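Recap from last week: sequence in, structure out.
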Amino acid sequence: MKDTAGSYFLFGPRGTGKTTWLEERFPTAIRISLLDSALRRELRAFPERLKNYIGFKTKDDTVVIDEIQRAPELLDVIHGLMDKHRHLRFIMTGSSARKLKRNASADLLAGRAIKRLCHPFLAVEMGDDFCLQDALQFGMIPLVRYPENGVSQEVLKSYLELYLEEEIATEGVIRNLDSFARFLQVASFSHGSVLSASSIAREAGIKRSTLDAYFDILEEMMIASRLPVFTRRAKRQLIGHGKFYFFDTGVFRTLRPKGPLDNPNEIDGVCLEGLVYQHLRAWNDYLDEPNELFFWRTKSGLEVDFVVYGANEFVALEVKNSCHAEKKDAASLEAFLDDYPEAQGFLLYRGERRVQVSAHVTAIPVEAFLRELTPEKPIDHCIAPGL
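Predicted structure tokens:
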């Protein structure tokens, strides 16, 4: 993740390293943590006291305010300070944008403080510590991958309890946490799949209106996202519903109930697809000029997992949890490329070498692709001939 000139909001789920990154990047900055309950109560009651904690005669003109959504009342004061003390730079972190969206001052800051996102690790950020199998098992959340105490699996379970009991409860919009926890488990079966809202509502035992509200909460708290269908210049009949993903593979695997009827290879396949997606999201959000991310699926059943579309990118990616790549695996990609000859198509698989599987589709080792994916490179440069 790169720094940005001027003030900005830095949003991302808890544990993704926002505070650690800012401490390393701005070691002398003024730091105000709203996780401190006493300080939070004081500043919510008397927002103008923020000025006392800043001072204005410091070695660093950067002010870092952690978890700004816990005291949105401060935004009015921050807006005034930006006008009066133009040398000050505010960086405001948050794990939810929900309360800020309901505060008019957040809009007032829009022209002065842009929005940036923080994601779980990219493989390139872990370097030699990256292991594909560990990533599929435990995900890429820094707090989980480098726990201070315990092991990653235990930390993942505690992490989910933290979200349910602390983050979601403090939002004050969910009266029944048991119902929401049940919804999360049911929704986990839709990770990497086209959403069937009526089926999820029925299995979770909740109303459709409640389901829609729950999905909105997941997205506003950056716990999950929906991937739309690519419909530009469509030549075939396409489905209308998007796909659903949790923000991290480890979170998905921990949420999803398992039993003797589950096929481990099927779950691993969904995990691999989700891991590629979370890498693509992070890569894209860290770009100076982000692209758009889609998937493609026809009513006849042809499907391409990911389509990256932008001013300088048009790439279709299919993910296969297999050590072998064959021509039949490229059928959907070839159909997509027939409709969109301007695009490039690649099959990401668990093998170790680059293979030409059809006339227009090359199979690429997925682990090598993830290791090469960095915001400094366009996707086609991450798929170098040497892979």
